[in-house]
Amino acid sequence: LSSSLKALESSYELTASFDVLASHDADTDTSATESNWEDLVAIGQASGKVVWASEDPRPWESESEEDGGLPGVNEVVAAGVQGLVLYLAFPSSVNADGTLTQKGRDLAGNLTTAAMVKANAEPGMPR
User: Fold this and answer.
1) How many other C-beta atoms can be found within 10 angstroms of the C-beta atom of residue 9?
2) Global pTM?
C-alpha cells in the first residue's frame, strides 16, 4: 500500500487517469494499515475517485506479532474503502462444495455487521 500511496501522492495526473484508485495487501505488506488506507481514501475523496482494496487475502482480525503482525480486513473496512476483493477466497474462505470455511464465516459475519453499523450511522443510507 505504501508504494501506491507514494505514487498517487506525487502525481495528480496519475491519480486523474484512473476511474478507481486501488491497492492491495500482498505477501508481507505491513504498510496496509488503517491509517494508510485512510490516506488513500482521502486521496480518492479529493480527486472524486472511489477506493478499492483490490486484493486482500487476510483474515478479519490483524495477525498477532507471532504470526507476522499483518493488518486484517477489519483495518481496510474501518478506513472506509468502497470496494473489497477477497483474494484467494477459494480455498481459504470457500470450500469446494460452496460452503464457507471458518475464515469465510468470520469475514461474512464481520462484513455484514460493518455494513449494518455504517447504514445506521449515515443519514439516508438504505436500511
Assistant:
1) 13
2) 0.78
* Helix (H/G/I), strand (E/B), else coil: 90: helix
Reported as type and span, the H/E element at residue 6 is helix 2-10
User: Helix 34-47 to helix 2-10 angle, to the nearest 10 degrees?
Assistant: 30
C-alpha cell at 19: 476511474
| pLDDT tens digits in sequence order for the chain, 127 residues long | 888 899 999 888 888 899 999 888 766 788 888 899 999 999 999 999 999 988 777 777 776 666 667 788 888 888 888 888 887 787 888 889 999 888 888 888 878 776 666 655 555 544 3
The span from the CA of 91 to the CA of 71, in Å, is 20
